[in-house]
Amino acid sequence: MLKSPFLTRVVHEGLRKKWSPMQIAYRLRLDHPMDHSRWVSHEAIYQALFVQAKGTLRAEVADGLRQGRIKRRARSRGAELRGKIKDMVLISERPAEAEDRAVPGFWEGDLIVGANNQSQIATLVERRTRFVMLVRIPHDRTAENVAPRLAAKMTTLPDVFKNSVTWDQGGEMGGHRKFTMATGMPVYFCDPRSPWQRGSNENTNGLLRQYLPKGTDLSGYSQDELDAIADELNDRPRQTLGWLKPIEAFSKVLLD
User: Fold this and answer.
1) Residues whose CB falls within 8 Å of the CB of residue 151, separated by 6 or more in sequence, listed in order
2) Beta strands of the chain (E only): which ranges?
3) Could you read off the pLDDT of 119-154 as tens digits, one per residue?
4) How confident is the model at residue 62 (pLDDT cuts 50, 70, 90)?
5) What is d(CA 154, CA 252) in angstroms, rounded to the nearest whole number?
6) How many other CB atoms sit within 10 Å of the CB of residue 98?
7) What is the rounded distance in angstroms from the CA atom of residue 86 to the CA atom of residue 107?
8) No. of H helices and E strands in the chain?
9) Which of 146, 219, 229, 253 could disulfide-link 172, Cβ–Cβ 3.0 to 4.6 Å?
10) How many CA within 13 A on the CB side of residue 187?
């Protein structure tokens, strides 16, 4: 069993926000470094949930850990457009400071496609802080439709977070020059069939399965609803950030 009503409440709250037991456990250590009575191991959480817990708590963790699937953009269509993006600059030309994540403002982006290949949203992840933004892309994913919507989202950022965007070679980013003119941010394109070159973005797209499972019609989501999903992801502790949340890492950059 969990040690106290406090820990039971914290675990409940974490699971409702789709945090993993490890995220809950390490965040407790970060929030209460001197009070070991408020610590619990992730193994103890798993034991309480799967061995001893009953009812709503067990149902919550089952829901929180369930892995749905998102249908990714049809690669057959992307293959037809690869190599046809005018003035494309490859990732090998991206500034070296983007690689070690020491400098903020380098973003990775992609489209996720919904049910029957008929709807889409754009996902954007900042490499240093793992801060996530989601962009509603209604109607279609033509270059004329995608670039202005991405630019409008990026212009809301502080200047320190406006270095560049890395994308794959899908034709939806064919309007990259207009995007750069609007934002001042160059676009770098990954090598073909190299999703690891956008590793942070790929990981985030996996996390989105909890919110947007396979067969979801993405056109039904408003921008406010997508912002709410991004807010939850940005409020989730990350091991890669020393168990800080992306919103905390993002804010820390602004204060430095």
Assistant:
1) 178, 179, 182, 183
2) 106-113, 120-126, 132-137, 164-167, 187-189
3) 999 999 999 999 999 999 999 999 999 999 999 999
4) low
5) 19
6) 21
7) 21
8) 10, 5
9) 146
10) 28
How far is C-alpha 153 from the geometric centre of its chain's CA atoms?
15
Q: Please, which residues bridge with residue 165 across strands?
A: 107, 187
Count the Cβ atoms, other than its own, within 10 Å of residue 195. Answer: 13
Closest CA to 148 of 120, 106, 180, 116: 180
DSSP 68: -
Calculate the average pLDDT of the chain. Answer: 86
Only one residue has tokens 């979801």, namely: 216
9-45 CB burial, b ≥16 within 10 A, e <16 = ebbbebbeebbbbbbbbbbbeeeeeeeeebbbeeebb
pLDDT value of position 68 = 44
Angle (deg, nearest 10), helices 246-255 and 223-234: 80
What six digits make up the tokens of 88?
A: 């494309």
pLDDT by residue (tens digit) across 193-211?
A: 888 899 999 999 999 989 9
Q: Are 236 and 17 in contact (CB under 8 A)?
A: yes
CB under 8 Å to 219, separation ≥6 — which residues? 114, 118, 119, 138
Contact by Cβ (8 Å): 121, 139 = no
